[in-house]
Amino acid sequence: MNAIGEMKEAVLRIEVCLSVLKDLHYRASGSAFYGLHIMAGKLVDEFRGYSDDVKENGFIEYGIPTDFEFQNDLVAMLKTLGLDEGEVGNEGLLERVNKALSDLNVFLQGRNSGNTSAGMMNLFGGIAEGVEKATFFVNRSI
Ligand SMILES: [Fe+2]
User: Fold this and answer.
1) Distance, CA 24 to ligand 1 centroid (Å)?
2) Ligand 1 mean position, distance from CA 42 (Å)
3) CATH topology assigned to domain 3-141
4) Residues 41, 35: Cα–Cα separation, whole Å
5) How far, in Å, is the centroid of ligand 1 from the Cα of 49?
6) Ligand 1 centre and the CA of 43: distance in Å?
7) pLDDT category, 85, cuts 50, 70, 90?
8) 108 within 8 A of 124, measured Cβ to Cβ
9) Are 74 and 8 contacting, i.e. CB atoms less than 8 angstroms apart?
10) CA–CA gap between residue 72 and residue 52 (Å, rounded)
11) How many A from CA of 25 to the centre of ligand 1?
């Protein structure tokens, strides 16, 4: 994969995390609702920032327009997480978040296009730290 494909896949995988986090934010229930709602809301804000950062860096360093199309790929990737299987409880919502975070983490660790810019490498490293923290919070909630 070249640096541009890698940058686009990073955005896609961050957006998958955003989608499952928004699901947790709105669909958590029961006595755990408030905590899960607040946690997911904070993580949504963080991950929105990561998506913007990668898009902006992609424009600055590779000249990729920040509004490049990824909706179709996003829908396909969300299907692999079983998001159209109907209602799930808090545990199912948390497991989806955990899986999306883990996939993003594996992707960020394995990046090796050979022509990734130094700025993008730094950005990926910073995001990987944020993903690890998010994974800690999510695992403590399961
Ligand atoms: Fe909200």
Assistant:
1) 10
2) 9
3) Ferritin (1.20.1260)
4) 10
5) 16
6) 11
7) low
8) yes
9) no
10) 19
11) 7
The pLDDT of residue 83 is above 80 = no
The residue to which tokens 């996939």 are assigned: 103
What span, in angstroms and rounded, lies between the C-alpha atoms of 69 and 67? Answer: 6
pLDDT, tens digit, for every residue of 90-123?
Answer: 999 999 999 999 999 999 998 877 889 999 999 9
Distance (Å, whole) CA 78 – CA 13: 10
Say if pTM beats, i.e. exceeds, 0.85. yes
Cβ atoms of residues 134 and 44 within 8 Å: no
How far does residue 82's CA lie from ligand 1's centre (Å)?
Answer: 23
Distance CA 28, CA 93 (A): 7
